[in-house]
Specification:
145 residues, 8-stranded mixed β-sheet
């Protein structure tokens, strides 16, 4: 089974010999994207709202204290996104592909019926281009501040 090995979810890279990573990243198989972190309630609420663009190899990772049925919407989000839900072990449990922008007052919500600990937002088409599917593993590398 392709990509059946799930890498450890969090590897914290402190400054020591051999550590080359300078930015936080999310990696699927051999494709990595730099990630911005959304951890505080304000960051979780704001997300990528009002952004006019997102660089090709950049995403936003939402980190929750406990796994939960995390529902997302695209209110005031100006760019289409792929939204990838990950469980506590770093396994992809759901993908919403090409969620469209929503500028109205009533926007649909998207989410996994399984508890998610992390959600990654990337440009629409990312999951298809890099063949990311439910069951694949992710490696998240978080740089300390």
């Amino acid at each position: 089974m392709k990509r059946s090995i799930i890498f450890g979810l969090f590897l914290i890279c402190f400054t020591f010999v051999g550590c080359q990573q300078k930015q936080s990243q999310a990696c699927f198989d051999s494709k990595c994207v730099s990630i911005e972190l959304a951890q505080t309630s304000e960051e979780l609420s704001q997300g990528l709202q009002y952004r006019k663009s997102l660089d090709k190899d950049v995403g936003m990772l939402f980190i929750f204290d406990q796994p939960a049925e995390a529902k997302f919407w695209m209110k005031n989000t100006l760019i289409p996104l792929d939204i990838i839900w990950l469980n506590n072990a770093g396994e992809v449990i759901y993908i919403e592909k090409s969620a469209p922008p929503c500028l109205s007052e009533s926007c649909p919500t998207y989410g996994s019926s399984q508890p998610a600990r992390y959600v990654l937002e990337v440009n629409a088409g990312f999951a298809d281009v890099y063949d990311i599917n439910v069951g694949d593993g992710a490696q998240i590398l978080i740089q300390p501040k």
